[in-house]
Amino acid sequence: MDKIIGAFIFPGVWQKWRQDDAQKIFGSLSEFGINSIFTESESYRDDLIELAHKMDLRWFGGISCFSDHIRNNQVLIDRPELWPINEDGERRHKMEWYLGIIPTFEDYNASRVKLAEQIVTNYDLDGFFFDFVRWPIHWELELRPKALKPLQSSFDPHTIVRFQKEQHVELPDNLSDTCTVANWILNNHRNDWVNFRCQIITDFVLKATKCIRDARGLDFKIGLYTLPLPPDDIFDIAGQNIFELASIVDLILPMCYHAIMHQPAIWVSKTLTDLSSALPNKVLPVVQVDSAEGVEAGVDWGPPVPPEEWSQITQIVVKETDLRGLIAFTGTSLFRDGRGEQLASVLKTDKIK
Questions:
Q1: 272, 320 in Cβ contact below 8 A?
Q2: Span 98-125, average pLDDT
Q3: How many Å from the N-terminal Cα to the C-terminal Cα in the chain?
Q4: Contact, 179 vs 296, CB < 8 A?
Q5: Which of 2, 91, 195, 259 could form a disulfide with 302 if both were Cys (CB 3.0 to 4.6 A apart)?
């Protein structure tokens, strides 16, 4: 497969496009060197997918697995047992738009697997990517350099029962509340807790991938988004055993949003070197084009990204030879201040395609 040069576009954007508008946008993206559209939604427009294919663009879909932010977390109102419980014994608070969902409830997980199977069966997608396939953390805020250490979750009764059963751990009788239970587990069985959380995610991805492969075949591309961290930190913080997951799916997509993370451009290089060394020929990074769209949406995407900084980011990424390409986040930001033309120039110079 050729290098993937993708543009991530939010569904709220492309859902409003008219056919003639979409044709112009796809044409411009192609001139920028884009060969793939990335998005995630529970429904798609056949006409846009068909148009993209006619213009030699691949269309990759996906869903949010353990977050219901699109519906303003309505599932947590309908099913409060899915609300994450932090190690301090309190319900997790909403941060900006994000709250998260406990991934240990098999009926809910099965409903997401079924949804993924329905989507790939009903739409002519070129691949499918799992997003928010992790334990609760709003990493864009909680992992910034000066942020407090994020709290572990979820220590709800259902998850604790599964943890004890699956890790063969027996809690002492004198643990009086959720906070003391969490402290005891984290102080005495931290490795078991990390392994348990990773196994929950791995099992979900295994089941979902099998259903998708059965529906669309072995050549259908499957991947997942992950945090921009070294593998061991991803294990502990997100509950993703990145090595096991990489053996199941085709592509691992670290979200290297340097401005959102309040990091310099060079941080992207270090992050990708760590991950590509650990996962050769598996890493497809998502890199931040600009922060202006965050401001427009009322969320914090970090400080402004000057056009020359975006150019630096693209040069960093294309020089990492073990990468599978790059995805611009967001694709619509490429139309600002000549950023799309900058991407095209770097791609031509470095012959990434």
A1: yes
A2: 98
A3: 10
A4: no
A5: 259
